[in-house]
Amino acid sequence: MNRIEWEKRTVRKMITLYCRHHLKQDPIPEEYAQLADYACERLDHCKYGDNKNLCKNCAIHCYAPEKRQQIREVMRWVGPRMMFYDPKEALIHMLNGLLF
């Protein structure tokens, strides 16, 4: 699996966890399904491709301001809890943040 595919899988997983555990909604509300699709679309068009770093560390902010705020909210809530819900994914994500 290449980096872009891994990032897309991770962002979808994080949005799903946010909706299921924080919002207490399952299935994912349409607003968050659209956010996941938007994030994946942005990843598909990432100028850096498989050499990209984490989006929060990127010099180019390709998200629309509203979507960027929404994804930040999701990441702030899910980030500290990822270790409990998916430890393997959390460790890989943290290592990628240190390496890239």
Q: What is the oligomeric state here?
A: single chain
Class computed from helices, strands and strand pairing: mainly alpha
Rounded radius of gyration (Å): 13 Å
Approximate helicity band: 55-70%
- Average pLDDT rating: 89
Helix count equals 5
Task: Tell me about this structure.
This protein starts with a helix and ends with a helix. 66% of the residues lie in helices and 0% in strands. α1 (3-22) runs antiparallel to α2 (30-44) and α1 (3-22) crosses α3. It contains 5 helices and no strands.
Topology record:
Blueprint (H helix, E strand, L loop, with lengths): L2 H20 L7 H15 L20 H14 L3 H4 L1 H13 L1
Helix pairs in contact: 1-2, 1-3
Q: Could you give a short description of this structure?
A:
The protein has 100 residues and is an all-alpha fold. Helix content is 66%, strand content 0%.
Brief descriptors of the model:
5 helices; mainly alpha; 100 residues
